[in-house]
Write a structure and sequence with these properties.
five-stranded mixed sheet; Nucleotidyltransferase, domain 5; Alpha-Beta Plaits; single chain; 15 helices; alpha+beta
């Protein structure tokens, strides 16, 4: 059983699916919180204007990259309006939910209608680059019967009251497929109903109007929101909230409590946000698909009447960031900083990371506000998780009472047991004393055994250093002396190696007693020589046999073979093996 599924108050999700759409494509990323840092686990994008088809394609692409699917999701969409409104409501004295809902909807109703006009067919065609601003104006003039370069007043009867898209296709400005794409995308950006889903969060007080406070409000058409929820539910996902397309990157500010100005540039949109002490004090949005990003950012910045000492942060697409920052610095004459994050990629925007940071890490929650189904959450005492917590607390109190009763009965039993243990204390003391004496005797016995073993080891070590090593040194010196005396002018010693010596049990200070009763090969030397003639080689071998005999050495394996020698001279190779044998008796150790 997953406790978080029923009691969300007890924990936050460790990862979440964050999706973002601009109306013509859909991209998503599974973002997790690892060691208090955001990490992108999976990411994908789908270029499809029909979001009903784009969503399952996106989820399939994510699952192909290793995502398990299911869980919660959030969505960033241009259809969500986020704005700052002034309300005579003190956050310390909140109004009832329905009354607050009415106040907020009264403020944003007109603003949302104006916002949805931005997603008309003409704006979408110009925004996608299918139509220029001049062509769009010409089409509108023909619709309304005004003279324009495309034709005079004689076209009024022919083109008046025609739909904008059909007229643009007929004039040859756009293709029918481009119009169809914009109409399909428009269905997921605007709706015709008057019902609004909205959410709000308090900011600071308005300086020049006592008793009035700023409230950050996010809203969207209810039917459009429900359409998105149904699309995610069909794929087995729970769409918990929808967030605005621009503005969420503010939650990634490095210093949220300081004064900052954030310029977020999106396609045809520039949003300027001023923050102070962790709250939004001003917000200005400029929307114009025909203007470049620099012009929109400058207009939005100057509308704030900002102080030049306030730090300015720019949030935009990474490939355009350097150019936009350079142009802003030249135009404003101030330093402009880039707002970015280590997890930003081509498929993961700053806004997506800002939402993930707000949902998973609760950072910048006053800067990033999403729309929930059914509006903002009810008061704490009306929430299911709070009631479940209170029920769990009552059960815990009952459990504590039962445990206390059992503890008292256990204490009484412990007292009786203590009396019984006292009667046996004397016997236990005597038993411990006897065991201690036995243990001491065992320890003394072990010490004696260790001393005997140490004495034997020292004795073996002395024998090794006093006898074995000097004998070894003398043997090597004798072999070298023998070679010096037996090698003639026609013989060359190429190498003298020690090899093939068998390891005996009694060759170190830790040797054990040998039980073998036979000869053992205790030394072995390999001599590689070269002689000018075969006779010289045989003579060298015979001389070596006579010379090493006094040292109990025996010459074995003496093949004489024809071989090239130094300076590529013809001669004979002599390989000789000197071994030393030592007979062992039963019970006698060889050192």
């Amino acid at each position: 059983m997953n406790l978080k599924q029923y009691l969300p108050l007890f924990g936050k999700a460790s990862e979440i699916l964050v999706c973002e759409t601009d109306g013509f494509s859909l991209r998503g990323a599974v973002i997790a919180l690892v060691d208090k840092q955001l990490k992108v686990l999976h990411q994908a994008t789908i270029s499809q204007v029909d979001m009903a088809q784009a969503l399952p394609d996106l989820l399939t692409a994510l699952q192909n990259s290793g995502w398990q699917g299911g869980g919660s999701a959030v969505l960033l969409s241009p259809a969500v309006l986020s704005t700052l409104v002034e309300l005579p409501v003190n956050p310390q004295k909140p109004r009832p939910l329905q009354q607050m809902m009415a106040l907020v909807q009264g403020e944003v109703d007109v603003l949302l209608m104006q916002h949805m006009t931005r997603w008309s067919v003409g704006h979408l065609l110009v925004g996608r680059g299918y139509l220029t601003a001049e062509q769009a104006q010409a089409v509108m003039d023909l619709q309304q019967g005004r003279p324009n370069p495309a034709g005079g007043l004689e076209l009024q009867d022919k083109y008046s009251f025609r739909r904008f898209g059909d007229l643009a296709v007929e004039l040859g400005y756009i293709k029918a497929s481009q119009l169809a794409a914009c109409l399909t995308g428009q269905e997921w950006l605007k709706a015709e109903d008057d019902l609004i889903e909205c959410n709000w969060i308090h900011q600071g007080a308005v300086d020049d109007v006592p008793g009035t406070f700023n409230w950050l409000v996010s809203c969207i058409s209810q039917s459009l929101f429900q359409r998105w929820v149904a699309a995610f539910t069909k794929q087995g996902l729970n769409l918990t909230a929808m967030y605005p397309y621009a503005g969420c990157s503010t939650s990634l500010l490095p210093e949220m409590n300081a004064a900052n100005i954030v310029l977020e540039s999106r396609m045809g949109l520039a949003l300027t946000v001023r923050t102070e002490t962790g709250q939004i004090t001003q917000q200005q949005a400029d929307f114009n698909v025909a203007k470049p990003a620099l012009a929109l950012c400058l207009e939005a910045y100057h509308a704030l009447q900002a102080n030049t000492r306030e730090p300015v942060w720019v949030a935009c697409e990474q490939e355009n960031a350097a150019t936009l920052i350079s142009e802003l610095q030249q135009a404003l004459g101030i330093e402009v900083h880039l707002l970015t994050h280590a997890a930003v990629t081509e498929l993961v925007s700053l806004g997506m990371l800002g939402v993930a940071n707000c949902v998973l890490n609760s950072a910048g929650k006053h800067f990033c506000l999403g729309v929930r189904e059914g509006g903002p959450p009810p008061p704490p005492m009306q929430r299911l998780e709070v009631r479940a917590t209170m029920l769990a607390a009552c059960l815990l109190l009952a459990l504590v009472g039962t445990e206390l009763s059992l503890y008292l009965r256990h204490a009484q039993a412990e007292a009786e047991l203590h009396d019984l243990k006292g009667k046996w204390s004397s016997l236990d003391t005597a038993s411990k004393r006897i065991q201690a004496e036995i243990k001491a005797i065992k320890l003394r016995t072990q010490d004696l055994e260790k001393q005997h073993a140490e004495q034997a080891r020292l004795k073996a070590m002395l024998n090794f250093y006093n006898v074995a090593i000097p004998e070894r040194v003398a043997l090597i010196q004798n072999i070298l002396g023998t070679l010096q005396s037996t090698v003639s002018n026609e013989v060359i010693i190429i190498s003298l190696d020690e090899g093939g010596k068998k390891q005996l049990p009694a060759r170190s200070p830790l040797s054990v007693f040998s039980e073998l009763n036979k000869s053992q090969e205790i030394e072995s030397f390999m001599i590689d020589a070269w002689a000018l003639t075969e006779a010289t080689a045989q003579t060298f071998i015979q001389n070596m046999q006579r010379a090493v005999a006094p040292y109990q050495l025996k010459v074995n394996d003496t093949p004489v073979l024809s071989a090239k020698g130094p300076l590529n001279l013809d001669g004979f190779s002599v390989k000789m093996r000197l071994i030393k044998l030592q007979a062992t008796e039963q019970g006698q150790a060889i050192l």
